[in-house]
Design goal:
6-stranded parallel β-sheet, 198 residues, alpha/beta
């Protein structure tokens, strides 16, 4: 469809602007490089995937594990951007979002990705399960800490327009209800403003 081609062109334009590879499926990982977020699992995964150049990982953020992750990376398809002020632009350029966390309260970066219509691949912790319980089409879970399984999930990931719609719907249909905590409602209004402004 024409709308789809346009989306793709927009993504390419953004990737060029952000200095990211134009080819391949682009995944974003974002957050502080701390043990709870398990960034090393993302690195291990894309080291394993490097024979398959279809996949690119762009990590946003900084922290105590940043150095060791950079050292552990042995693939040109792993890009470290450090702290950036335009996370939203990176999400809009992406095909998928990955969270490797071993625990999360409210996973803001996951919700932000969904609001941008970016399907997610998430560790199977309770808060991630809860988010994906609203829609199977918005993303996939993998066993926390299991780089091998994460590799398989990424290899089998299909990104169709309905996945993108499902991602957005979690934010618009489910996380805005009165039953949600005030936290979610505040976040929801921020997300809606974001998507209105982009």
């Amino acid at each position: 469809s024409n709308h789809r081609t346009l989306k793709r062109e927009e993504k390419l334009t953004l990737r060029i602007e952000l200095g990211l590879p134009e080819s391949g499926k682009l995944f974003i990982w974002s957050g502080p490089f701390i043990p709870r977020k398990m960034p090393e699992i993302a690195i291990k995964t894309f080291n394993l995937l490097q024979a398959n150049s279809d996949f690119v990982l762009c990590l946003l953020g900084d922290g105590p594990l940043h150095e060791s992750c950079m050292r552990a990376s042995n693939s040109k398809r792993i890009i470290f951007k450090g702290h950036v002020n335009n996370v939203n632009k990176h999400l809009e350029a992406a095909d998928g979002f990955i969270s490797t966390s071993r625990s999360e309260g409210m996973p803001n970066s996951v919700l932000e990705s969904l609001a941008h219509g970016v399907p997610v691949i998430l560790s199977d912790i309770p808060s991630h399960k809860e988010i994906l319980s609203y829609s199977n089409d918005a993303g996939t879970l993998y066993p926390v800490g299991d780089a091998k399984k994460l590799t398989d999930v990424i290899k089998n990931s299909e990104f169709r327009p309905n996945n993108s719609d499902a991602a957005k719907n979690i934010i618009t249909e489910h996380l805005n209800s009165e039953t949600m905590s005030t936290n979610y409602q505040n976040l929801y209004s921020q997300l809606v403003d974001h998507s209105a402004n982009t």
